[in-house]
Design brief:
With 137 residues, this protein is mainly α. The chain has seven helices and no strands. This is HTH araC/xylS-type domain-containing protein.
Length: 137
């Protein structure tokens, strides 16, 4: 089964059919289908959709690639299938996911900028205090 999982992980962006994998591994389609569900707890198509959605999620977070490019590069046959599969997996559309992440990322950056400003303010306050106290020493 590891060999099959590895094959799927390497070829998720291509058109993958369980029947082709069964033929390649010299197994019956019925046997492989049941074995897959017993081994992973989910059917082949659901596993493949999860892998594709996870790869798409990574591209949404790490790149500025257009959604259609991400859709195609992750093996989805069309954007409707991509959107519905992604929504099922993550509870929102790919576009919403990217926008929400960027909004959260911006909030984090603003938080760290405030921290930096506070630090600089504190540092300049120390310098001012030292200048004021220096004549008294």
């Amino acid at each position: 089964m590891r060999k099959i999982i590895h094959y799927i992980d390497e070829h998720y962006s291509e058109k993958l059919l369980l029947s082709d994998i069964a033929l390649k591994e010299d197994l019956s389609l019925t046997y492989l289908s049941h074995f897959f569900k017993d081994y992973l707890g989910i059917p082949f198509q659901e596993y493949l959709a999860k892998i594709r959605c996870e790869k798409a999620r990574q591209l949404l977070l790490l790149t500025d690639f257009p959604l259609l490019d991400i859709c195609m590069s992750c093996g989805f046959s069309d954007s409707k299938y991509f959107n519905s599969g992604f929504r099922r997996q993550y509870g929102c559309s790919p576009k919403e996911y990217r926008l929400n992440f960027r909004h959260d990322q911006l909030k984090q950056q603003q938080k760290s900028m405030l921290t930096t400003q506070e630090f600089l303010y504190a540092a300049s306050s120390i310098v001012i205090l030292e200048r004021c106290l220096l004549p008294f020493q």
